[in-house]
Amino acid sequence: MTIQTESTGKVTQTLEALKKNRFGVQHFSNASAGVAKLLEEIPVEATVGFGGSWTLMQLQVAEQLEARGNVVFNHNKQGLSKEEVLEMRQKELSCDVFLTSTNALTVGGQLVNVDGVGNRVSAMVFGPKKVIVFAGVNKIVDDLEGAIERIRAIAAPRNNQRLKLPNPCVQSGHCMNCQGPTRICNVTTIIDKKPPLTDLQVWLVEEELGY
Question: How would residue 1 be classed by pLDDT, with cut points 50, 70 and 90?
Answer without folding.
Answer: very low
